[in-house]
Every structure is written in C-alpha cells, then in structure tokens.
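Hey L., structure's done. Input below.
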Amino acid sequence: MTSIAFAGLEFLPVTEGSVFIGEDKGGWIYAGQRPKHEVRCPKFFIMNSPLNHRELSSILDADLSDGEETIWNRERLFAITSMLTEQLSSIATDLDTGYDWEVRCPTQSEWLHAKATGKLSLTCGTKEILADAVSSNYRGAMMDGRPRKFDGHGPMQWHTATMEIHPKNESINALSSAPMDRDNSGLSVRLVITPIRTDAPNIVPKKADYGANIRSELIWTTLLGVIPSFAIPWLRGMGDYVYSGWVNLLFGGLCAGFVTGAFWRPRRPTIMYSEGERQN
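Output:
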C-alpha cells in the first residue's frame, strides 16, 4: 500500500494486524482496564500528525490564523468527517473497492496499532479525540477495530474517548475522555480513512466468570489476610488471644486480605479474538 493524498491531507497506510488492549493484572485498581483482549484491525490509512491550521483552513475553505485556538465539538467534527467521507469517490482508485470507506477519528485500537507500526508523530501534552464512546471497562468492546458505541443512558453519552499523551514522554499515553456537547479547546483531531464494518461484530464477552473470581478472592483473602492474622499472635506466644480475640483477628485478617486485593491478585486471562462473542 502507498500513502494517499486527499483533500490537502496525507494518509499513511497501516497494514492489517492485531493489537492487544487492556490490562491483565488482577488488582482491583485495574478493574477499569480489564479484560486484556486482542483486536484485529483491517488495513486502513491514518494521518501522521493531527490536523493543523493550514489543513483545517483548506477543509473549511476559511482563513484560520496560526494563533487562533481550534474549538472542537460534536457538530463541527461530524460536519468535517461527513464532508470528507462524501468526497472519497475522488480517490476510489486508491482504495479497495470491495469495501465502503469512511473518514473519521481513529478508534483506540486503530490508534494503538498505528503507533505500534510507527505511523504516528506524537506531541507531548496533547489530547487526541477518538471515535469510541466512554465506558467503565472493556466488557462489550469491539474486537475488529470499529468504534464502540455508548451503552446506556445519561450525560456520558455526549462524551467521547480521547488519547492523552504524557506531558514529558511521548511514549506514554492514557485513555481519557472529553465532553463533545460543548465547545472544547486543547483537543487535537487525527483522521483515518477506514473500511466500514457492516457484519455482526465480535465483542469482548460482557459477563465475567463471577464464580471463579469469588473463589479466587476467598482463597487469596484467606492466605494473605486471615491465616497471617491468626498465625502471628500464635507464633509470638499469644495463644490465649487466638481463642479469646478470634473475632478481632478474623475481622483484621479480612480487612488485610481485601487491601491486598486492591494491588495484587493473579493475572486474569487474555481474551483472544476467537474467544469473543458474536453480537447480533
């Protein structure tokens, strides 16, 4: 594949491939980043850097000064991506006509896959808009690189996921969010040309193995909390207190066991693409 010049923008090719998203650490503090799962991205094209004033001026056919701060909201972003998508017929010969293509912001998986293949130029302290809706964890996440839709009701439906770059180290990034029902400054927009997925998506299973999680929690709370709570006074020659103060020792052991669960538990399984659920 070769790069595509379109509407005054240059898009670099990204080959199809897999990227792993999420965290497999078992501690409670990582619950919002689980489960770790494989995402298979099709081939797509991505901008090396976010839109600058010159490129945005060309798209909007307006004269935006370099010092003018760019304001982003849902309406403006939708208008730009829709306008560019309508113009895709002008580069049909450069695209695989077996697909319908669209222009939009990248999903988290597309962004990470492009970064892993060296196609992104990053700037410290920036915050890039993604095409994904916000979510509390990766249960129900798409495993084929398509945008994740908001599942539920409430004001968070107007937010979008963003990728935030560390202020001093461009190799460090974190998932964040931004409200798109109002004007936002300080956000960056990077666009992709990507195939529209129309078949039923493969998603991360929405339900965890709660039975296995409860059994694991009971075992490790006992081993790391309850047993040491009783063993320590016994080994220190305070055997009488083990009998008379067993309620206090049990409560203290449970508390200690729960605290260890915040930081450490055995790693959780990684969900491969073949293990995903087919959503109807």
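Residues 102 and 161 are 19 Å apart (CA to CA). The mean pLDDT is 90.

-- N.
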